[in-house]
Description:
The protein is α+β, with helices and mostly antiparallel strands. The chain has helices spanning 2-11, 17-36, 41-47, 51-61, 80-136, 139-179, 186-215, 223-226, 242-249, 299-302, and strands spanning 64-69, 72-77, 232-233, 237-240, 261-267, 274-280, 288-295, 306-309, 315-318, 327-336, 349-356, 358-359, 362-363, 367-370. The longest helix is centred in the first third of the chain and has 57 residues, at 80-136. The model is unreliable at 66-84 (pLDDT under 50). Keywords: Membrane, Transmembrane, Transmembrane helix.
Amino acid sequence: MNKWLNLLSKKLSGLKTSDRKDIIENYRDLWNEELSLNKSPNEILLGLRPIDEIAKELYEEFEVIKKSKSDVTKIKIVNNKSEVTSSWIKTINNTFIKIFGFIYSIMAILLSFIFFLTFVGIIILIPVALVIAFINYEFLVVLPLAIGVMGIGVIVAIFFFFLSNSSYLTVKVIFNKWFGKTNETKDKKKIWSRLMLIMIIIGGSICGIGVITSTVGSQSIYGSVLSENYLNHNEVEKFDLDKTISNAFAGKESEFTSESKIYIDFDWGLTPWTIFEAKLDKDLSDNQISIQKHFNIKKSLGNEFKITEQPEASYWEKNENSSYDSGRLYLKFKITAPWNAKFLSITPIKYEIAYNFKINDVPVENIIVRF
Length: 371
């Protein structure tokens, strides 16, 4: 009896304490009356309605609405005015949330599309870049770098695929919440996560091997650049500039003094990554320049980098407004490169430039080389 009464009391927790006590006392009297007739507890229970049914009837009688979930019971007192206000606020909130969700979904779709295109672009460009690299460089020279690039490519591609997939799943979750109840299974997510982790580990290992073998040792593609001991070089090219200088001055060599300057300008246009080293070499003849190229690309390709003098563009410019700069002589050169070398410049072309000038019996010391 007591167990049944306690359970009923809990079910009626939404009522006022005094009302609940009166109801429990009434049912206690009913139990005592039935027990006095020598009825067993089971017989009494069979004659009573279920506790949930009793509780529902009493809540309706006392104008209380019962809302239950599992074993937890929540009580809400009916108030028409507050109910209308609450419903109006919920409608506004739901509308705002849906508008925001729609805008966010559009942005997420665009981001997903951009990231996916980047992922596809990386997948396409890496093989193309590797093919051009193998055309421009000796196979064994560029192979370690190719291995490293493939490893980096795998990691970067996975990164952009992850961003694309995350944006897509965000949109999917939003729309499923509005229009459906489908969810991606955890098993599928776990499989994807494990697969991507394995690919990242493999890509990182390949990348590490490629980076180490590309930079260690003077015979590696970047180790040779760091040690300034390039794998290939061409024969020294010499340019005698007496005629060019004479044409540039047009008989005004006497205007050149020890304060004058010579600018040696190289127009290297669209040629690949270029560095240079310039120095005075008194072993050269007067008004002579020597140039030697150092590079890691194939020797046959490196020899196609042509340096040509442009005498028609060279000129003398007298400066009458400065006591420390009486004038400037501009000597012009142009460097051209084969078309296929312009697409992939992964190591520089180094130009060693030596010069010796003597004009109007004046040894020239103010020489500036510009690229």
